[in-house]
Amino acid sequence: MKNIVLIGFMGVGKGSIAREVLKHSDYIAIDTDDLIESMSNKKIKNIFKHEGEAYFRKLEKNISLWLENSVQNTLVSTGGGFYKVENLKKIGTIVFLDSPFDDIIKRIKKHPNSASKLKKRPLLNDLKKAKELYKLRRPEYLALADVVIDVTNKSAQECSKELLKKVNKNA
Ligand code: S3P
Q: Which domains does the chain have, with CATH numbers?
């Protein structure tokens, strides 16, 4: 199986959709943010605070090279800015999870742990800036995607079904 790379804005539901895909497939799952936290033994918000965003992006780049050269049969959930790595298309089939900015924020806010979900993402601290970032990134996500899934008002289960169907057609 070719790897699947999930891309999309912060809070769009990459993690929950990945967990659902696992239940209905034989993919191994990894998450680039989790890898960075375990590699550095630090929370992402602290890496941003102490080492800075550029250092975080360097770790993402290192992970992208490892993914390209060493990983198979894997569903890779990525942080919202990971799509900028140069070799993204070489890692696997790119699946973009799409939703309007306001729906993404609504989705986060209705979660029982919404405060911590917002706090752990440094680039979501200022919603006005985050919306600008979203506007910049959305066309770039679309340009890279092999498969696009509109996740608005759909459950993780519905999205995962759609994902597996579209990815298999694409294979
Ligand atoms: C980021 C998204 C975050 C995390 C970091 C930077 C971004 O991941 O990688 O805070 O640049 O969009 P999620 O998309 O899982 O929130």
A: 4-165 (3.40.50.300)
